[in-house]
Amino acid sequence: MNLNTKVTLFFIAIAATLLAVLVAISLYAFRSFSIASATDHIQTAGEVVRVHLTEAMINGVIDRRESFLNRMLEVRGLRSARVVRSPEVERQFGAGLNVESKPDTIERQVMAGGKPSFEVYEENGDTIFRGTIPYIATSHGTPNCLQCHQVDEGTVLGAVTMTMSIDGLRQKALATVAGITGAVTVFAILLVLLLRRLLRPISETATEVELAVQRALEGDFKAQVKQRTNDEIGQIANDMNRLLRFLDTGLNRIGMSVAKLTERTATPGENLLNATIEMVDGLSKAAHFKQAIEEDETKSEIYERLSTTLMKEFERKEFSLYEIASNKKQMKSIIVDGQAADGCRWCDPEILVRPEACRVRRTGHVVDSIDNPGICYAFQPPPDASDRRHVCFPIIQSGAVGSIVQIICAPDEEKKLQECAPLLQVYLRETAPVLETKRLMESLRDSTLRDPMTGLNNRRFLEEYVETLVAGVQRKRAHAAILMLDLDYFKMVNDTHGHDAGDAVIKSLANVLKQSVRASDLVIRYGGEEFLIILLDSSSEQAFQIAEKIRAEVEALKIQIGSIVLKKTISIGIADFPGDSSTFWQAVKFADIALYQAKETGRNRVIRFTKEMWSSDEDY
Ligand SMILES: Nc1nc2c(ncn2[C@@H]2O[C@H](COP(=O)(O)OP(=O)(O)OP(=O)(O)O)[C@@H](O)[C@H]2O)c(=O)[nH]1
């Protein structure tokens, strides 16, 4: 029900109530007035009858009383008039004329009580007012009642009963009330019409504002509200239009700016407001994501966070994260389906050793098998998920594909994946520079911990790693053998064949050392031609055997430098941590002392440190 109808109905209800009250009051007032007027008339007529009867008695013409009473009926409105005697008068003067009526119940009551009685009743469709008035004996006046009647003053002598029709009065009252009702009704109708006319612009403006708000809630801000008046209602329409234009322009601008960032625009029929909120929301989350990964310490943490985001924000369960090695010749699987992994689940593992088999790596473009089934031959889902499609996104670092995010989807998720792809690319664009920086930092850090010539870790690495190493040995209550190695008479190589020849010898030696130990052991270029090997979980005997094997291999090594072949030997000192010293660096020192012994005792040999080689008063 609109405002206009509501107000009209409300007004009609009030007008009807007022009218009803007015009619009721009017009818009551007219009835009261009619009765009061009839009462006055009957009392006056009663007095006239009394005076006339008194005169008739004095003049001795009381027998003409009935004729008088009949003449009275000629008075307009008077229907009947009769007089009855009280028992006291009957006692003195007899029952009276034959035509005299006997008192009825009301008259008897009036004569007994001395009080007049009035009543209204309907008779043959006429409204009759009846009044019965007692005549009471009084000594006032000349002549007075007591001069003829032998009764006490105050005695009821008789009663006169008159009836008169008040129908005429009632008709007049009804006609008046009808006139008032009609006038009030006409006035009320005019008022309602005027009110409706006044309310129509308010009601129509309100309806249009409501429609405009409804459309705005659905993302359409193009609705306009017509200005109908120049008052406040017109102002509301104008203000509403201004607000709608402002929102439309503002949201379009925000939408376009956001669309540039997300490469997504609201589709036709889509709620512009919701689409914009969704896009801004997504960008805000992406900004928080960027801040979080910038504060991450390592690449692994970034990949982990990206994986969590894919699961939580994008509701992905099946996906892979790959990283291309710096030399671009290998690819590493980092995370598969939310778990750290080093293998492939969704692709041919060949891509790990031959990255160019991966289409994204090769092209640097998004590869989408939803729109282009079979686009990448390296995509090989397992048999139990053969209906899956994939979309692979490159993360560009230093101008090339540095990492790859592969999203897998079941047929019923394809649309959803394509819808969220633009936002996912925002996340990946935010990730790219951060990952690039982390990779550069890691490679820079790696270069400071690695000897560039041999690729072995350097002394600085050992200094950083020693804490972890010692903690591991102590936790496992194990032993670590420390081998200190130094080429014999290496200076002669430089002096005789040049510095490059010396470098070649060092590189050859480094290769021999790397191949002689397990991957878990550490080979460190400790100084110029000095190397340190840490054999984890090795007893002294095992360490000695390995050292001896190294010595023999170096002795047998033929190093080709141009046209010449060089042969070198090596001396090795061994100490045990914590067997020889509970302090790691002192154990290193003891290995160095054993090496010194090997040099002193003829070189090309392995010497195990013994306590005798060290007197505690020597400087450490
Ligand atoms: N070519 C080359 N020479 C190096 C390198 N690092 C250290 N050297 C040289 O290695 C030589 C080490 O010689 P020394 O420590 O005197 O001893 P040595 O000649 O090996 O004799 P012993 O150790 O006593 O058997 C020095 O001449 C250094 O200049 C390097 O990276 N390349």
Describe the protein's architecture and organization.
InterPro entries: Diguanylate_Cyclase, GGDEF_dom, HAMP_dom, Nucleotide_cyclase, Rev_trsase/Diguanyl_cyclase. This is diguanylate cyclase. Keywords: Membrane, Transmembrane, Transmembrane helix. It comes from Azonexus hydrophilus. Residues 196-252 form the HAMP domain. There is one protein chain. The protein has 620 residues and is α+β, with helices and mostly antiparallel strands. The chain has four domains: 3-171, 2-Layer Sandwich (Beta-Lactamase); 222-295; 304-442, Beta-Lactamase (2-Layer Sandwich); 457-613, Reverse transcriptase/Diguanylate cyclase domain (Alpha-Beta Plaits, 2-Layer Sandwich), CATH 3.30.70.270. 53% of the residues lie in helices and 18% in strands. The protein is built from 17 helices and 18 strands. It has helices at 3-59, 65-72, 87-93, 105-113, 145-148, 167-217, 232-262, 272-295, 299-312, 350-353, 359-363, 414-448, 459-476, 490-497, 499-516, 540-556, 584-600, and strands spanning 78-85, 117-123, 126-136, 156-165, 319-324, 331-336, 339-340, 367-368, 389-397, 400-409, 457-458, 480-487, 522-525, 530-536, 559-561, 564-566, 570-577, 606-608. A six-stranded antiparallel sheet has the order 7-6-5-10-9-8. Strands 11-13-14-12-17-18 form a six-stranded mixed sheet, sandwiched between helices. A hairpin with a 4-residue loop joins β13 and β14. It is rod-shaped and about 190 Å long. The protein starts with a helix and ends in a 12-residue tail after the last strand. The model has no long low-confidence stretch (mean pLDDT 89). Residues 486-491, 494, 499, 502-503, 506, 528-529, 599, 603 line the site of guanosine-5'-triphosphate (GTP).
